[in-house]
Amino acid sequence: MKILIIEDERDLAESIAAHLTKDGFVTETVFDFHSAEEKINLYTYDCVVVDINLPDGVGFDLVEILKKIKASSGIIIISARNALEDKIRSLEIGSDDYLTKPFHLSELTARVKSILRRRNFGGSNEIRFHELLVNYTARKVFVNQTEVPLSKKEYDLLLYFMSNIDVALTKPAMAEHLWGDSIDMADSFDMLYSHIKNLRKKLTDKGCKDYIQSIYGIGYKFSDT
User: Fold this and answer.
1) Taking CA 110 as the corner, what is the angle to CA 109 and CA 116, rounded to the nearest 5 degrees?
2) How does pLDDT run across 72-122, given as a tens digit for each residue?
3) CA-wise closest residue to 220 among 174, 156, 168, 183
4) CB atoms within 10 A of CB 134
5) 159 with 1: CB under 8 angstroms?
6) Alpha-carbon span 145 to 140, nearest angstrom
7) What is the average pLDDT value for the chain, to the nearest integer?
8) Are strands 126-129 and 219-222 parallel, antiparallel or unpaired?
9) CA-CA-CA-CA dihedral for 116, 120, 125, 126, to nearest 10
10) pTM
11) How far apart are CA 179 and CA 191, in angstroms?
12) Left if phi > 0, otherwise alpha if psi is -120 to 50, otherwise beta: which for 137?
């Protein structure tokens, strides 16, 4: 899952990014309104963590931009301001949560996970697709109750597929989801092909039907049809 952190306090932004990365997320960090606006117009994020007070703008305006472009991202506002009117406004314009500074990084991570479970998996910790089961909290995968050991990228790829059942996913979108916008510098999708190949083999070796379908000229689809 890919998270954008918009926070002008660099030490805090980097601490948040390090904590979320350690928990298995792909993170990107920006420190001002203009850079954040560029990012959310160019890329797709599962969750956006945004500070209200930025050196060249207001975080509330970024939330409104996300809503205007119909982004599916979860949104968490973070702020040193504990005013009730700010909390009310954040909910009225469409954010999912509001966290007052200072906060524990583990609490922010828990709130990010809660939003993603609610948005992508109906609030459940387990995602099932026929004989395939993913325990989101434990980051474990099972086929017919037998655990399938996966690498971090293989797990992230499977979770992305299972969040987009029957959706045609382009190779650039998949690569960007796994590696962030740094993938723009790559000259091929060889890493993506390799992870898909390994994931497919590990699942089918445990008796799972091959649900990963290639779509010529586009990318892939995870489907049983």
Assistant:
1) 90
2) 899 999 998 878 888 899 889 999 999 999 899 999 998 998 888 887 776
3) 168
4) 21
5) yes
6) 11
7) 89
8) unpaired
9) -150
10) 0.69
11) 10
12) alpha
Are 193 and 157 in contact by the 8 Å Cβ rule? The answer is: no
Strand pairing category for 146-147 and 26-30: unpaired
Query: Tokens 């702020």, residue?
Result: 79
CA–CA separation, 129 vs 88, rounded Å? 38
Q: 3-class secondary structure for the chain?
A: CEEEEECCCHHHHHHHHHHHHHCCCEEEEECCHHHHHHHHHHCCCCEEEEECEECCEEHHHHHHHHHHCCCCCEEEEEECCCCHHHHHHHHHCCCCEEEECCCCHHHHHHHHHHHHHHHHHCCCCEEEECCEEEECCCCEEEECCEECCCCHHHHHHHHHHHCCECCCEEHHHHHHHHHHHHHHHCCCCHHHHHHHHHHHHHHHHCCCCCCEEEECCCEEEECCC
User: CB atoms < 10 A from the CB of 212, how many?
Assistant: 18
